[in-house]
Write a structure and sequence with these properties.
two-stranded parallel sheet, globular, about 40% helix, 11 helices, Rossmann fold, alpha/beta, 12 strands, about 270 residues, six-stranded mixed sheet
Length: about 270
């Protein structure tokens, strides 16, 4: 995936259409109260970011958004206000072949849709489509844990990206939320969520390390959630990712700006 191109004019037209719409009018899965068929990870094979004539130097960027009760406003904020800024900042900074993937994260023990997976896209309409296909379930486990480790599993084992395979250039993976990750995922969860038939228990550290083989991995901790300045939460992320890969954000409306700045800064250093 990843064909087509970004059009600022097309995005402004789509964004304008959201002004008179409610959250459920934009995120249509909310009305159905279930995950989109296109984002259901059951029996997931591979999500691809491939070079094309339009995008000869594709760069895979994965953005997994916490869609639980404390963080469910973030996807709506992005599609109403900030998707344009993310894409325009990348293009203006020389990242002209970005392939952006939107996914959703919930709780593997309490939610019906703890993992939602879109596609890598570059075209305006498709970026809007996958972002607004996220089911904002609004659940969560309530125990200072969500299933961010499932994002690392998808990135590590279910993506094929030309930036790495052809140019040995890592993609970028961002999770966004306000809690810790579950420390492990058991075989029964993997069977239920992803359809694995022969799985073993996996840990957060194991899956993170696998994802880091193909991606620069970051977590954005949003201070407007339930665990502002929580030493247990922040300590968990610092120990797992290190200071450089933990981004602590005071205002969730700055998410897209921070993501674009981080990508540009890493590419300039490389």
């Amino acid at each position: 995936m990843g064909y087509g191109s970004w059009s600022d004019n097309a995005s402004r037209t789509l964004t304008s259409s959201y002004i008179s719409k409610s959250t459920d009018d934009i995120f249509v899965q909310n009305r159905e109260r279930k995950i989109s068929n296109g984002m259901d990870p059951k029996d997931l094979k591979v999500r691809e970011s491939r070079d094309s004539e339009q995008h000869p130097n594709s760069l895979a960027i994965m953005l997994f958004l916490d869609e639980t009760g404390s963080m469910g406003q973030v996807p709506e904020m992005i599609v109403r206000k900030k998707l344009d800024k993310l894409m325009n900042k990348l293009i203006e900074s020389g990242v002209e072949d970005a392939h952006v993937f939107f996914g959703g994260i919930g709780d593997q023990y309490s939610d019906r849709a703890p993992l939602q997976v879109g596609q890598f896209e570059a075209e305006t309409e498709l970026l809007h489509k996958w972002l607004t296909s996220i089911y904002l379930e609004g659940g969560g486990g309530g125990g200072n844990h969500e299933s961010y480790l499932l994002a690392w599993l998808v990135a590590a084992r279910h993506t094929a990206i030309d930036c790495m395979e052809k140019r040995n250039q890592k993609g970028f993976l961002f999770t966004v939320g306000d809690e810790r990750s579950h420390a492990n995922v058991n075989a029964d969860v993997l069977e239920q969520v992803l359809g694995y038939t022969d799985a073993e228990r996996m840990t957060d550290e194991q899956l993170l390390n696998e994802a880091k083989e193909k991606y620069n991995v970051y977590h954005i901790h949003v201070q407007q959630g339930s665990y502002r300045d929580n030493p247990t939460t922040l300590g968990y992320w610092r120990d797992l990712l290190g200071e450089e890969n933990l981004i602590i954000l005071e205002n969730y409306e700055d998410i897209c700006d921070v993501i674009a700045e981080k990508i540009v800064s890493v590419l300039e250093i490389a």
